[in-house]
Specification:
Blueprint lengths: L17 H7 L9 H6 L21 H10 L4 E10 L9 H12 L8 H4 L6 E10 L3 E8 L2 E8 L2 E6 L4 E6 L15 H10 L5 E11 L2 E10 L6 E9 L5 E8 L7 E9 L17 E4 L3 H7 L6 H4 L1 E6 L6 E5 L15 H7 L2 E5 L2 E7 L4 E5 L3 E5 L3 H10 L2
Parallel strand pairs: 6-12
Antiparallel strand pairs: 1-2, 1-11, 2-3, 3-4, 4-5, 5-6, 7-8, 8-9, 9-10, 10-11, 13-14, 14-18, 15-16, 16-17, 17-18
Helix pairs in contact: 1-3
Length: 398
């Protein structure tokens, strides 16, 4: 029975929050390209090691997915470890600076702007503390040694504070930091939501036993692509047996080795956090940047639809896990060359593999999960697929 398969005998799933489940289950009804998952791949490192396999009532894969959809945890606090292992070359921090600079280019230049600061999660290992008390109060703190970056949503106010630079970013309006488009995925639930949207008839979903994560009994949901040509090996989601909240998310590449993405709580509590946890007053002497509003903000805001709308003819080729995003940069000539670019083209070219096909010639840049082909006539093909799959997509899109 596709895409759900399980050797577990069907059992009576817990029906708490059933009405909420019926409302939220629709978010998994429409499959999306796996490119969406790859684009959100800001990794979380493993939670505390499993301390045993708890004996839990048997449950089918479909029931477990429904349990996740029905989960409606409003209050929690905890600690998450964050790492990314895409297998990128070591550029001495250059790649992080480039990403941060690009993000700041869409913001207001403040180091406390979440669009700039949270790009640090794309590489390395990080510790994040999270807290939530309903839809109007959330807090995320990124800890780096003795320094801290905090993103606090309290009512209509969203504050970002960078202790390193003593800068504050402030915005107002309805919705949380995520509703403002500022906060990337930072918890196992965020990643699980994206993965479950990709479940369709190209996917196998099974129950893979039980585990204990951060002291909580959990079921393990295993998601595996049926298609060849994808770089995704498997996704494992540890689901809290009582609340249905994803506690751990692990994405392993088909090439094997360490997980590209391994998301897990090391500590979690479902008690209501203290109200003071969401209070914030700019420290004395801090530089405070107010986000532009009204006509001035509209003047500098990106076009509706974000990055995708800025690309020329963005389209998705293929289906499921072998989906490839294709767009035209309008910059024929491939990698930059010539006196103005110095040796940038040669440097970038040395990081990629030269390929050719019916589409012409180009360069493939590879990570352990996402690969991208830049053709000499300025087209880009990207996805969680192999190099050969990119060439085939480019040939088909010619």
């Amino acid at each position: 029975m596709a895409p759900y398969e399980s050797d577990d005998a069907p059992g009576a799933a817990r029906d708490e929050d059933a009405r909420t489940g019926r409302r939220r289950a629709a978010r998994y009804a429409v499959p999306v390209a796996v490119v969406g998952v790859a684009a959100a791949t800001i990794g979380l490192v493993p939670a505390l090691a499993d301390s045993g396999d708890p004996d839990l009532p048997r449950i089918s894969a479909e029931q477990l997915v429904q349990k996740i959809a029905a989960s409606d945890v409003q209050r929690l606090s905890g600690t998450v470890k964050i790492t990314t292992d895409l297998g990128l070359p070591d550029l001495g921090g250059l790649e992080k600076g480039m990403l941060s600079g690009a993000a700041q280019g869409s913001g207001d230049g403040s180091s406390a702007d979440p669009r700039a600061k949270l790009t640090e999660l794309v590489s390395g290992t990080h510790t994040v503390r999270v807290a939530a008390d309903g839809p109007d109060r959330q807090k995320l703190s990124l800890l780096e040694g003795g320094e801290e970056y905090s993103l606090i949503h309290n009512g209509k106010d969203v504050w970002g504070y960078d202790s390193r630079s003593n800068e504050v970013h402030h915005s107002t309006g309805a919705g949380s930091g995520k509703d403002h488009g500022a906060e990337p995925p930072t918890t196992p639930e965020d990643f699980a939501d994206e993965a479950l949207k990709s479940v369709d008839d190209t996917t196998s979903v099974t129950v893979d036993g039980t585990a204990q994560v951060a002291g909580r009994d959990a079921y393990k949901l295993l998601i595996k692509p049926r298609q060849s040509g994808t770089t995704v090996g498997a996704i494992s989601i540890a689901v809290d047996a009582r609340t249905g909240l994803p506690l751990k998310f692990t994405l392993t590449p088909k090439s094997g080795g360490a997980a590209v993405l391994d998301a897990g709580f090391t500590q979690v509590s479902f008690a209501r956090p203290a109200a003071s946890a969401f209070d914030f007053t700019p420290p004395k002497g801090a530089k405070v940047t107010e986000e532009k509003e009204g006509a001035e903000a509209h003047e500098h805001a990106p076009e509706p639809g974000g990055f995708a709308r800025e690309l020329d003819g963005l389209k998705v080729l293929g289906k499921g896990w072998t989906s490839v995003a294709a767009f035209d940069t309008g910059a024929a000539g491939g990698l930059p060359t010539g006196p103005r670019s110095g040796d940038l083209g040669g440097f970038l070219g040395s990081l990629g593999d030269q390929v050719s096909g019916e589409f012409g010639k180009g360069t493939v840049f590879s990570t352990r999960l996402v690969n991208a082909l830049i053709t000499d006539d300025g087209k880009v093909y990207a996805g969680a697929v192999t190099k050969d799959a990119l060439v085939k997509a480019a040939d088909a899109g010619k």
